[in-house]
Write a structure and sequence with these properties.
alpha+beta, 10 helices, four-stranded antiparallel β-sheet, single chain
Amino acid sequence: MTIEVKTPELPESVADGTLLEWRVSVGQSVRRDDNLVEIETDKVVLEIPAPESGTIRKILKPNGENVTSGDVLAVLEESTAIAPAPESQTAQQQGIAETAAMPMSPAVKKLIADNNLDPHQISGSGKAGRIIKQDVLAYLAGASGPESASGNNSGPPHPQAGSMPAIPQPEDLADDGRMEKRVPMTRLRTRIAERLVQSQQTTATLTTFNEIDMQPILSLREKYQEQFIRKHDVKLGFMSFFVKACTEALKYYPVLNASVDGSDIIYHGFYDIGIAVGSPRGLVVPILRNTDTLSFGEIEKTIRDFSARAQDGKLALDELDGGTFSITNGGIFGSMLSTPVINPPQSAILGMHNILQRAVVEQGEIVARPMMYLALSYDHRIIDGREAIRFLVKIKQSLENPATMLLAL
């Protein structure tokens, strides 16, 4: 029986995708769930698995072609008996089998196999030591460990193989001082550019600032970190406090949770907060749904999962759709102050920054405190300065006295 391999149903916000690279060829035998091809959309890279075990009879769409929902990509002849590997394997076959058993994405496994690498010699920087594409590329480039793969702020991260053109490194352009390199934008980068221009052209953006004393949160984390890890198997970070503080402030000032649709204002009775996450392909914003119902542990676990899967290109399309408010943290890269850009159709976004010891005055005395600047960009068409300022002050009050969030005060 023949089976058509089709493009999965794409959400309304994603019109089409581009075939990046076929991982199989005509006549090749595949097993169910083997990765056949990657499709790049303007949000994520989708891996299309084999629906059943069988043999590839036709490939109907070549690399680089645009496809839409339901397009037939290939024809698979189903087979219920794919011959197992013989017991007496060669060393190379055994290595391939061991690689297949390790917790890695199909794309990473293929990259390792194509370069005849031993995965045990590659340091994984993903969740629980998982090997991601950056690690393999760093290894191929001669890097010695996960610090080189993760970038450690010394330069842009290595791109994911097959998902974007190589980003020129300084050494690539330093031969004679006059070298240039032209690379096409990925679909994600193109979409980011479109949305940034859209935001600037369609919103009346203003930004208001404030600062917070992070000592209460730092003290709370230090006191309860070990207990939190034992119970939730994840560290208590800063983002859960900010998500909770924003959620409480949105309840007080619902217009910041609203969006503009033509001449109407749509007020949302739920709290879906987007968390900006950096990935090798660019910035993505997965959505924390119903944050008013999530515990601190659930928020931290979900964000950790988002971050790990963003690095490996594994975020699902529905995890990137929607959102009523966003948070972005430039502080992890060392930013002291910036003005975040609103993510339409949302009407506001909070920018976090780095924490620095600064001199402040308390009760007439100059003392050092760990301070952070906050920036709130908002659409002045529907949000007045009064609401925006009060909203940011409410966040400041919650973070400087975190017990009020726990007691719903």
